[in-house]
Design goal:
alpha/beta, 9 helices, six-stranded parallel beta sheet
């Protein structure tokens, strides 16, 4: 269903809360990640070229998948997500340092674990936003909605990356401090409790069918699928209540 189809809103619910996922809904993770690699390499005395940055980003995505972090419904991932997140970055730097050695590129010697911690600090800088994110949040804020960000990730990293949006949202829920990850129903239960809100008052907006949409649907929260490329959900996954291709489309109906 398209969110801008006016026939859907003859009896539309009255939302008081709009809750956004962070990565690839409001924040461009790959751009933030690339920037963090670039700054860290400079700290290590490496003038990073496109080949090194591409290698690093590709290794990160591949090892994320190999670690199983895309399978957020897995009991193992739900239990150990944040430790696995850190381990994944350590393994990325194992491969990066091997790559630098193979190209005979000199760098300040540090352990992979140290590089991981330095990288996470750089990642806190963030600052790359999805098109229309700031505009959408600003207008919704002016209309009186209570705005929140609800994200899987590490507390300091996600808090740092979203700091430029602080004027617009009222609450930030990060899985590390909340004690549960999306799509676990407990994540949404704890979020609602902290909001002091009923599920019927909330709209959840996110780009992940397996995390955002599946989790919100399980918790009985109305959800909007953010799909910039226009992908339609496969039949095997929960169907979102609405779909938008641009965040600014929310402004036509909220």
């Amino acid at each position: 269903m398209n969110f801008t189809d006016s026939t859907l809103f003859k009896n539309k619910p009255s939302f008081g809360h709009v809750i956004f996922d962070a990565d690839d809904t409001l924040l461009c993770y790959r751009d933030d990640e690339r920037g963090a690699f670039l700054r860290l390499f400079s700290t290590l005395g490496v003038a990073a070229d496109d080949a090194l940055l591409s290698f690093s980003c590709n290794a990160s995505e591949r090892i994320w998948a190999e670690t199983g972090l895309y399978d957020v419904s897995s009991p193992r991932v739900q239990k150990h997500y944040h430790a696995l997140y850190r381990d994944h970055i350590t393994h990325v730097f194992d491969e990066i340092f091997a790559y630098l050695h193979s190209r005979k590129i000199a760098f300040t010697p540090v352990s992979s674990a140290c590089a991981r911690d330095l990288f996470l600090t750089e990642l806190e800088t963030g600052g790359h936003y999805v098109e229309g994110a700031r505009e959408t949040l600003a207008v919704l804020k002016s209309r009186g909605y209570v705005l929140s960000v609800a994200t899987n990730g590490l507390e300091t990293v996600q808090r740092g990356r979203t700091k430029g949006l602080l004027p617009f949202f009222d609450h930030l829920f990060v899985s590390e401090s909340l004690g549960a990850i999306k799509p676990a129903e407990e994540f949404f239960i704890r979020m609602l409790r902290k909001l002091n809100a009923r599920k019927e008052e909330c709209l959840f907006v996110g780009d992940s069918l397996s995390s955002d949409i599946a989790g919100a649907k399980t918790a009985g929260i109305c959800c909007c699928y953010f799909s910039p490329c226009g992908e339609k959900p496969p039949a095997a996954v929960p169907v979102p209540d609405f779909t938008v291709r641009r965040l600014t489309e929310l402004l036509a109906v909220l």
